[in-house]
Amino acid sequence: MDIVTFGLISASVILLSAVGFALILRVEGFLNIAHGQMLLIGAYSSLLFYNLGLHIMPAAIAAALLTGVVGVIFCAVLFRPVKARGALVLLFTSVGAAYLVYGVVGTLAGKRMLAFDLPPVRAFKVFGHPFMTIYELTIVIVAILSALSLHLFLTYTAAGKSIRAVSDNEDLARVRGIDPRRTSYLVWFVASALGGLAGVFLGIMGSLTLSMGWQQIIIILAATVLGGIGSLYGVMLAAFVLAFGIEIGLQFVPSNYRTGLAFLIIILVLLVKPQGLQALWGGGSARTH
Question: In terms of pTM, does the model score above 0.70?
Fold first, then answer.
């Protein structure tokens, strides 16, 4: 029962954070290492809002929106000006942005471990055994609804279709009257907000540390590779495969081997499916929509 509970919670956090990372990768064409620090911003800003008197849910929403705005600012100030120089320059710019966020948050919040002082609640029971608390159930439900909402947004809205058009061919999208700059800002807002929300949930289930962004970006990269580079749906599936694989593995090895287990799962899957999990339904149709 614990494996199911912790697997669902871990998968929810990985799903929210990795799908945003994959969205930026697909549209902007580079690995945004700073995305891990969006979780840091989300976690620490939600704790600030919570300590100022907001209920945990409004605090989480406010933190996600704030993180989305920070993502747009990063896009406008740091990434758009150097986009023409190629993916490698963007990659190193993202590393610099990650250290910038790490330093600013460390200066403002300090280096000590922090935590939410949430009211204690009882876990729901399934077949007589404790299963999930209301906090944990909310995390799982919000993650699933967020993934569904992103699918509907990309598939059925004009803004979502513009994102798909820009990700496929930016020049052709521009000819068809789509503004790539505006679309890029929208992508960064959505992706960063999802990352910020993942950070909130990560903080609720554990503690807030300055290293959480660096630790999570490794898992995010693992989910992205496992799901198939550029495949949003592959990443969604990979979040669950990775989370449950890690939770099962932790029954046999210490918790400090979590990252090692993640890459072991990647190796095993890629030996069978070199294209990642997207190969289960065909690579082309799952890359953006």
Answer: yes
